[in-house]
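Title: Prediction job returns without error message
Component: structure pipeline
Severity: low
Priority: P3
Assignee: unassigned

Description:
Job completed but the reporter wants confirmation the result is attached to the right record. Sequence as submitted:
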Amino acid sequence: MKAMLLAAGRGERLRPLTDTTPKPLLRVGGRALIVWHLERLAAAGWREVVINHAHLGEQIVATLGDGSAFGLRIAYSPEPAGALETAGGIATALPLLGRAPFLAISSDVWCDWDVARARALAANLGRQRAHLILVDNPAHHPAGDFGFDHGRVYSAGTFPHAALTYSGIAIFDPALFAALSIGTRMKLRPLIEHEIGCARVSGERHGGRWVDVGTPERLAELDAELASAA
């Protein structure tokens, strides 16, 4: 099973930090954000990782290299200036990902979800096109993204109870992106909503630590938290 780390975003809310450093290489707890993910994947037995990049992507390639320093093999999927959004980026990387379900992780989140569980989830994906890891709504996103009940994900507008927030971590069947051409620019949400309508999206709630590192303030808070725990 392969993993994809999504690393092509511009990081507008993190400017001016991201004017000179790509968001995945910003450091918390002594490591670049993306390195936390790489180390967790390697510790859980992963060997093949795909990383997409756009803004200052050459820094990501120069820093991580071929992945051997982490016990991994990294393949890169470069994107044009402005990037291709999440769905477009994944669709463009499909030739590197293959035909089997894969784990996708946004590199700008920090999360202690057990990535080792992804293999069993992928093996049991069945007719589902996606399995989303959901978290409780943070203060900066109180409305959440999707409804959730007994393993099934719903559109927030049709779900009678409070929605949860998509963590940026999921197991995807490549068929979810098969209709998109390489180089297409498209967000993930419309594809997920379509599959929800077909009852083909499952999920689970993660009750552990999760941080969307989207602002300098949240970056500094996470850095202090990890440094104090070291």
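Comment from assignee: result matches the submitted record. The chain has one domain: 3-229.
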